[in-house]
Amino acid sequence: MFRRNIGSDQQGIALLGAMMIVLVLSVLATTLLNLSGQEAVSASAAGQLAIAQQLADASAELVVGWFHEPLSTSTIPAIVALRTRTGRDTNGAPSFFDATGRSQFLGTVDRPDLHFQAKNDSDNRLLNDRKYGLFRAMQHLGHVEELKVYAPTDPGLLCTLDTTVATNITPSVRQSVRMQLSALGLPALKTAVQVHRNLGQPQLGGESPVSLHWGDLKVGGNLVLKTSTDLPRRSGIAPLSGQGYEELGQREDRWVEAWVGGDVQLTQPLVQPFTDVPTNIHVGQHPVPGVRFDEWPYEHLKRMAKRFGRYYAIDRDGLLYPQGIVEPGKGVSPDVVVRSQAPGDQLGLIFVDTLDQMPPRADNLGVLKLRAPYIEGTVVMQGHIELAPSGSGAVIPALSPPTLDQSNSLVRTPVHLAGINFNGVLHAIGTITLSGGVRLYGAALVGETIARSDSGSSLEVWYDHDLGEGLFRGLPVVYRAPGTWMARF
């Protein structure tokens, strides 16, 4: 009887222990399930927050893009005003800053310079319309609720950009980011062709090799022409066909002005002063009032190329060395570096330094030989350039400078330019020597002069008006200032 009671007690204790183990396991399982659910919720929330943040960053980058692609927002007055340079730098050129360095953006967070809110129907259509909205590319993930642009908080910067977005999930996740933008600081080019010294030699066959469309010519010294008709006469009804003067058979243009520090001389019928000067040629500009050149400082361009472009050293054989590191046997031919395969193959900024990588002097200038049939970019040579394209060039789309239409609105006429060898900015601190016929769309800046290797060489230039607005393709007009990004909520 006693033994049976002990056995019953032991069985009861074992049963109780098993029940306690089951209870503990049940509690643990419930806890694990709850934790797993919470982890899933947290992971989902974190994922949606990451999506919201990426959308906010993407919307900010799209705003930055408005400064670089004018045509995409050319019909929206508020955005046109946003990127229009209303200030003037110390040289009088258009700038985002005034002469003291103060940004043109003066608004506050409560009264911004640019303000779009999705709660306003018109703004919401502009921002988020599925077909035409500025941010329609992100509509499958979210939409923009608010966008602000106002004054920077840090001196020297351009503006503050504040964007708020919301995801399309339920419940929606909102994210707001704020950053400041900095401007590139590369002065606009208001001149199509400029040479600091004489252009042409006062002898038969040594005349200026340059013919010009759509922009200004500036010459620091004398300008030598063959006849009085070599420089285009200015006419408000000149054609906008994109054809060269040889095809047109006449030299007329709507925009060409020539500013000459010295005199204009003719070589036919003999070397003589140009007495019957057209109204679009301004002679005797030196020393008063002076020929105002567009200036690109050496050190500034060098720093810019190292950050946003490509920087090369050069040796006396004309070979290029990336990053300025000159090593025997490591030189690269300019034909490899400065060559675009087709229109749209943008090279950006290519800066070729002096022989000793010090500021330019008469004894440290190298020679860059450009033989590529087509080049698209901004080539800055701290020396001389021999320009001798090996092919017939390319056909490229171009826009004329603005003209008034019948409704007194400014419009730009699209044309196609054929046989273009260089599309962009060609800058040489020394002399550009031409071999053969060369066509350029953009601008040319020359520290000394433009010469020809033979009497048949020439340079025909169509000015790109966008350069006068500070738009240099392949370079950022504005960019996110380092260390200024922050998530607000």
Principal-axis shape: elongated
> What is the percent of helical residues?
10-25%
| Tally of structural domains | 2
The proportion of residues in beta strands is: 25-35%
**Number of helices in the DSSP assignment:** 7
Class by alpha and beta content: alpha/beta
- The residue-averaged pLDDT reads 89
- Radius of gyration in whole Å, from Cα? 32 Å
Report the sheet with the most strands, covering strand number, pairing sense and barrel closure: 12 strands, mixed
Low-confidence stretches: none
How many strands appear in the DSSP assignment?
33
Q: What is the fold's blueprint, element by element?
A:
Blueprint: H1 2-66, H2 77-83, E1 87-88, E2 94-95, E3 114-117, H3 121-128, E4 142-150, E5 159-167, E6 174-183, E7 193-195, E8 210-213, E9 217-219, E10 223-225, E11 233-234, H4 245-248, E12 252-253, E13 258-260, E14 264-266, E15 272-273, E16 281-282, H5 298-308, E17 310-314, E18 320-322, H6 334-337, E19 349-352, E20 366-370, E21 375-381, E22 383-387, E23 394-399, E24 403-404, E25 410-411, E26 414-420, E27 422-428, E28 432-434, E29 437-446, E30 450-452, E31 458-463, H7 465-468, E32 478-480, E33 486-487
Parallel strand pairs: 7-9, 7-29, 8-31, 9-13, 10-14, 11-12, 13-16, 17-19, 19-21, 20-22, 21-27, 22-28, 27-29, 28-30, 29-31
Antiparallel strand pairs: 1-2, 3-4, 4-5, 5-6, 6-32, 6-33, 14-15, 17-18, 23-26, 24-25
